[in-house]
Design a protein that fits this description.
The chain is 33% helix and 14% strand. It has 414 residues and is an alpha/beta fold.
Amino acid sequence: MKRGLLFWLSLLIILPALIRAEPIYLGIDVLEQSGFRAIDGKRVGLLTHPAGVNRRGESSVDVLRRAPNARLVALFGPEHGIYGNEKANVPVDDKIDSRTGLPVYSLYGIYRKPTPKMLQGLDALVIDLQDVGVRSYTYVSCMRYTMEACFENDVEVVVLDRPNPLGGLKVDGPPLDRKWRSYVGAFHVPYVHGLTIAELARMAKHIPGWMDTPEHIRKKGKLTIVPMRGWRRDMLWSRTGLRWVPTSPYIPDLSAVLGYAMTGLGAQEGDFSHGIGTPYPFRLLRYKGKPPTEVKAALEAKRIPGLRYRIVQTQSAAGAPLSGVYVSVVDWDRVRPTELSFHMMQLAAAWSTTGNPFTQAKNSALFNKHVGSTAWWQEINRRGARARVDRFVDQWTRQAEAFQAKAKRFWIYR
């Protein structure tokens, strides 16, 4: 009896070490493992960037070039270009890729949407873009515009899926008012949407009004999804075992991905900065004229669940010493990621020495395209430091939960 008990106890101790999580195979991996079935016999284009790699770190460009039964004939680049070396908000020109000899069509230059000439001769356009799970990130907008152009020109769209680095369960923040839909925010989703890029593509294909393509063309358009294998909705990127490839110059790692969701909106106006140009992009908060101790105390007084703050000494990109307040996530389950940004706005209105910065905003349209909520814009303009952040955050939480309930029918991963 005792010996049997010891056997089972030892088994319980050893078993977790013997069990290994299933490795994650990205859409590009699954495509190759299938013998490139989804593009068999086709002339294809590829929309991608440096983060478009397989699980071994090989570029999807190279993977498709070695497909024996398909021909890669053109490349398409989003913001920052196919090699990620172009600056944000800077137009990118068409060119011939010196490495492959293929034409590279820029979708962040003269055109944001592929032209019929770019698509001429293509049977399918493959999309392999790594998103960050936040609405105001232009790669999903680029995907939407590309889908529209392909559907309008009878070209199949093949989306190779990738993880949402924030996981597939967290939804948070304001939904996008229709009047603010733009290239900054192309989909009517909460700011943190909890979907993979392929799930967003499915919604765009099937929900009326999510695309500008006429309805009969949208319905007729062909969308093929190549899903991942092994990814679960409860996985943040840190649990995937995959190496993060920077998706843009200011998103070098997962820390910046989390920070972008938490503070990206909070420095849109006023004198807050969120660490751009330091080793802690989107995680290091500073306010002009306020010592870090005061900023830290003000943030702690907000009692935002799941976050903690500490003062960090570092330096700017130019090597000048500086200090700021680093935002740590101590309980992801409790965090409502965007909540911090709106408290930052409230503090910016309280601390400004020249009046409410939101009534003096130089580019209110761009602010609203990011945030997406006319009601919040009116609130922060009228009430400034007295803006009712908690009331809006609670309302957006309910709306985000309602959105997720409707989005579940488009989930690929349960």
